[in-house]
Amino acid sequence: MSTTSLPVPDHAPRLREALLLAAFTADGLLDLLGAPAYAALARSETVPALRATRGEGVLETLVRLFLLQRAVPLERARKALPLEECLTDGWVTQDGDEVRATVDVRPYGGPEGQDWFIVSDLGCAVGGAGGAGGQGEGVVLGVGGASTTLAGITIRTPVGSALDLGTGSGIQALHAAQHATRVTATDLNPRALHFTRLTLALSGAREADLREGSLFEPVGSDTYDLIVSNPPFVISPGARLTYRDGGMGGDDLCRSLVQQAGDRLNDGGHAQFLANWQHVEGEDWQDRLRSWVPPGCDAWIVQREVQDVTQYVELWLRDSGDHRTDPDRYAERYDAWLDEFEARRTKSVGFGWITLRKSGAERPSIVTEEWPHPVEQPLGDTVRAHFARQDYLRERDDAALLADHFVLAEEIMQEQVGMPGAEDPEHVVLRQNRGMRRATKVDTVGAGFAGACDGSLSAGQILDAIAQLLGEDPVLLRDRTPQALRLLIEEGFLEPAPR
Q: Which residue numbers in the chain have pLDDT < 50?
C-alpha cells in the first residue's frame, strides 16, 4: 500500500476549523450518539451509531463520512466541509452525487481538553475487530487500547527532545509535541509516517521530524530525553502484518528495543515501552526481563497480563480477521503458531510496561512485578515518582532514613479487617485510591507509624514513642523497622516531608 493515494495536509487548518465548528469532537460525539452507541463504536460496532445519525445535520454527515465510512450526498458534504479543498487534498472522493472519505478521521480528546484528530486507514480506527489484517501488510491502525495505555503511563515533564519509535498513526508523537521542544517519529512503514503527518496537521500540532526505518536505525547516534514506543510486539511465526509482527524470533524485537535504548537516552532520560515477553520453561520471567535492562539504567517492569499460548494465538488470529477466512487456512496458521511456541519452549506470554531511566547509578534499581489489578490513568506522575523514590532510598542508609521526616501520601485509607464485634482487628490494610491503587497489610507498629506521619517528628522519634506505648525496647524496634519502612516508601504509601 503506497502513500500516493493518501491525502495531503495542505489545507488541514481549513478542515480542522470545519470539524470544530460542527462539534466533531470527542465530547460532541458523546452528546450526539449517547454513551451506548459511543462505546459500541469504540468496539467497531457501527449499527447503533448509524441509527443515531439518521438526521441530516452537519455533525451527522461528518460521523457517517469519516467514522462510519458511508457515502453521503454531495450537497450534505458541501455544507459540512470545505469541499473543494478536501477533494483537492484527497481527504474525500466524489462519485457522481456522492462523496466518500479516503481515510478514517477520529476525534480524540487531549489530556488538557484539546480537540485532536487521529487519522488512520478506513475501518482500522481501533484495530482488530474489523479484521485489519485483511487490508494488507502496510495497514495503519488508529487509536486502540495499547495506544491509550502508553500515552497514559508516559511521563509528561517538559523535555528538549522526544522520540516516538514505530509511530503508526502518530498518537504518541502528538502527545509528545505538547511537552517536547523537538519530536522525532520513526516507522518502518512509510505509509505510517504520512498518517502521522496528517494527524499532527489536523490536530493543529507542530510538525515532527519523520524518519523511515527499523528500530533505532533511522536516528543514527542521536540521543533523547524521552523515548516512547508501542512496537509491533506480537510474538508470531513470521512478519506477515507490519502493524503487529516485528519480524524477529520470539520476543527478540522487544528485547533489542530495550537493550539498545540505554545508548539513545540522555542522562536522566526515560524510555517507555509496551511489550510482550515469553514465559519459557525452566526460566523465571522476571530474571529474563532483568537481563534486558541496559547498564546504567534503572527499570520498572510491570506485567499486566499473562495468556497461555492457545489464548494468545486465538487473540491475534482474531485481531487480523483470520477467523473469518477458510477454516483450513485458519487451522494451518494456528498450528504453525503453536509449532513456533513449542520450538521455543514457550508456555505463556506476558504483556506489560517497561520503563527505563538513565541514572548512571552504580547500583541500578530494577523492579519487576506482576500487577493485574485496576489502576488509575494517567500514570505518568506515578511513574516519575517511582524513580524519584528509588533515588531517595538508594542515597540513604538506615540511620539517615530514621532521621528523616515523612508524611502519608495523598488518598491513603486505612482499613481494619476482623470479625464483627472483635475488640482488635485481625490486621490493618493501607490502601491507595490513586495511581497503582496498591494495598499493603501492616502490623500494629506499621499502622501506628503511618498514622503518626505528619512531618512533625522524625521516623526514629515516632518509633521511640510507639516502643514506649507498646512496652518494647526502642533499640530493637529501630533495628527491625527500616526494611518495612523502605517498602512503604518504595510503594508510595509514605513520602519524605517537604523541607
A: 1, 126-134
Q: Which of 251, 239, 490, 262 is nearest to 385 (CA)?
A: 490
Residue 262 gets which letter from DSSP? Answer: G
Answering whether pTM is above 0.70, one says: yes
Residue 226 sits at φ, ψ, to 5 deg, of -145, 130
What single-letter amino acid sits at 108? Answer: Y
CB 5: neighbour CB atoms within 10 A? 11
**Region of residue 177 (phi > 0: left; psi between -120 and 50: alpha; otherwise: beta):** alpha
CA separation (Å) from 65 to 23, 56, 326? 15, 12, 32
What confidence score (pLDDT) does residue 368 get? 98
d(CA 142, CA 101): 15
- Which H or E run includes 478? helix 474-480
Residue 18: strand, helix, or coil: helix
**Secondary structure element (H or E) that encloses residue 408, with its range:** strand 405-408
CA dist., res. 22 & res. 456, Å (int): 56
For strands 159-165 and 115-120, give the pairing.
unpaired
Expressed in percent and rounded to 5, the helix, strand and coil fractions of the chain are 40, 25, 35
User: Peptide bond preceding 378: is omega within 30 degrees of 0, i.e. cis?
Assistant: yes
- Sign of the alpha-carbon torsion through 253, 256, 259, 261: negative
Amino acid at site 440: T
In which element (H, E) is residue 358 found? strand 346-358
Burial 147-186 (b: 16+ CB within 10 A, else e): bebbbbbbbbeebebbbbbbbbbbbbbbbbbbbbebbbbb
225: exposed, middle or buried (C-beta count within 10 Å: 0-12, 13-18, 19+)?
Answer: buried
Please tell me the distance from the alpha carbon of residue 277 to that of residue 354, in angstroms, as a whole number: 11
- Give the whole-angstrom CA distance, residue 285 versus residue 291: 10
Calpha distance 452→66 (Å, rounded): 57
Beta strand residue intervals within 152-237, DSSP E: 159-165, 180-187, 209-212, 224-229
Strand segments, DSSP code E, in 222-332 are 224-229, 265-280, 297-308
Output b/e per residue, 365-379; b: 16+ Cβ within 10 A.
bbbbeeeeeebeebb
